[in-house]
Amino acid sequence: MFNLPYIQPLFRPPSEWQSLILQVTNGCSYNQCTFCDMYTAPQKKFRAKKREDIAEELKAVAATGVSVQKVFLADGDAMTLPTRRLVEICELIRQYLPSVRRISSYCLPRNVKNKSVAELRTLAELGLTLVYVGCESGDDEVLAGINKGETFESSQAALLKLGEAGIKRSVMILNGMGGVERSHQHAIHSARLMNATQPEFLSTLVVSFPLGMARVVAGFDGRFTPLEVPHLIDEQGWLIGELALECTVFRSDHASNYLVLKGTLGKDKAALLSQIDKARAGLVPLRAEWQRGL
Ligand code: SF4
User: Fold this and answer.
1) For the stretch 84-113, what's the b/e string if a residue is b when 16 or more beta carbons lie within 10 angstroms of its beta carbon?
2) 238 lines ligand 1 (CB under 6 A)
3) Beta strand pairing status for 47-48 and 70-74?
4) Core-most of 84, 142, 186, 285, by most CB within 10 Å?
5) 232-283 pLDDT tens trace
């Protein structure tokens, strides 16, 4: 939308397609998950952008006269910045783009470990009211295998802290991330993590390995068998079957998914499970490989 000096590749959640993408950091401060190659190119080495450069970019956007409503702070975990820097960025956004009504970012659980609820609440008051948390799984064996550097406990603590501060949580769980060997426990423990934290949004994506599976297989000591489509759908059924959510928007409509599911949990749980049963019986069309847009 705007011609800003991005360091490519640039990623954003699908729902941020109308947002101004403001690259306040480059890369991911962690960058060690075995399944992820988003920020492995040499130019994506992690660093924070200088305040003056961010201000220049915002000034350039303001000069276009476009009324920006939403801003997404890129790259992989802008929430790793100290609160003081995030406050500064939110204030710059308010100064140059007063029409902005929501600021969002990817967020790793570890990003909020040393931030207090009061600090997070300050950010929420400045407009940073939504974060996308790639939990990937609630199962400790899966999390260790993919080298996520997080656990059920650390993910739960971060999600609860964000919620207490009034920041909405959009959680991603990776369908198939445990392989055949850990599929059931991955689904059940991921559901329990969601039940314990009641995020406002939950989406599932099918894990894919564009650069091969070697690092993932090694992380599981050679014991990792990727799931075939019927098993991916079974896993979705176990996950949704175990979910006890009160008011969470659920989506599995990302390009990676074979079976598109949408609803609000809990009220649509029975309908979603019925869709899964129909898919198992071949009564619901699944996306073909060419339709998955990966
Ligand atoms: S934390 Fe996210 S962006 Fe960083 S390596 Fe892991 S999956 Fe990739």
Assistant:
1) ebbbbbbebbeebbeebeebbbbbbbbbbe
2) no
3) unpaired
4) 186
5) 999 999 999 999 999 999 999 888 888 899 999 999 999 999 999 999 999 9
In a domain, 186, yes or no: yes
Tokens of 60: 């350039």
Print the domain residue range for 258: 14-288
Over residues 166-205, the pLDDT tens digits come to: 999 999 999 999 999 999 999 999 999 999 999 999 999 9
Domain with residue 71: its CATH number is 3.80.30.20
Q: Is the CB of 134 under 6 A from ligand 1?
A: yes
Q: Is residue 79 in contact with ligand 1, taking CB distance under 6 Å? A: no
Structure tokens at 294: 């990966």
* 2 occurs within a structural domain: no
Residue 294: CB partners within 8 Å, gap ≥ 6? 208, 210, 255, 256
The residue whose CA is least distant from atom 3 of ligand 1 is 76
Instruction: Identify the helix (H) or strand (E) that includes residue 153.
Output: helix 152-164
Q: Tell me if the pTM is above 0.90.
A: yes
Domain tally, the chain = 1
